[in-house]
Amino acid sequence: DTGVSQDPRHKITKRGQNVTFRCDPISEHNRLYWYRQTLGQGPEFLTYFQNEAQLEKSRLLSDRFSAERPKGSFSTLEIQRTEQGDSAMYLCASSLPAVNTEAFFGQGTRLTVV
Amino acid sequence: AQRVTQPEKLLSVFKGAPVELKCNYSYSGSPELFWYVQYSRQRLQLLLRHISRESIKGFTADLNKGETSFHLKKPFAQEEDSAMYYCVTGFQKLVFGTGTRLLVSP
Question: Residue A25: pLDDT above 60?
Fold first, then answer.
């Protein structure tokens, strides 16, 4: 499968623990996005990178959240001191930088905070 | 801010019936608009984009700037069209609507 891959697919953690998710984009894509999706809602934008530069962060991304893309390839999203409200599906997508270009999504990481 | 509104959470039709999934956008200037679809147990994928004026799987979507709408239409629904459909806008980043679940019954 040469599409966007995310790891892990599922994560159950206790409240207060830190978690880290990984996203491997399609190799020639230099844009990478993170979204969060809760039940009954569409995906909500969290942040995006162009190469290794983080160009925009949503206000949804509190200081407990941090995302990196150190070499402009894979990206990690870390949540510190998880809360029950962080339970959601975390989606990663990648694309070329052109306007109107298609974003390719991974299958997501489902986080459950107990 | 760019925003799209999908007023229907669920649209249920019979096979062969026409389908229209509504989407209204709020954006000044020329909007970038897409429809993304998520079939059961599959990842989100692009269905079509307004700039291409294409028909994909029998679906079309016309941009109506006067009504600020980008409704998705198909004249004859098929069971395999059952899925979650998202109207999406965005330039640098994609902004999703809340989605409409289409259920096509035999």
Answer: yes
